[in-house]
Amino acid sequence: MKARIKHQLFFQHSPEAVWEYLTNADLMALWLMKSDFKPIAGHEFTFKVSPAPTLDFDGMVYCKVLEIVPFTKLSYSWKLGPGDGTVNIDSVVRWELQPKNGGTEVLLDHGDFVVMKNVGIFNSMDKGWLNNMNKITGLLNAKENDTANA
Question: What is the pTM of this model?
Answer without folding.
Answer: 0.94
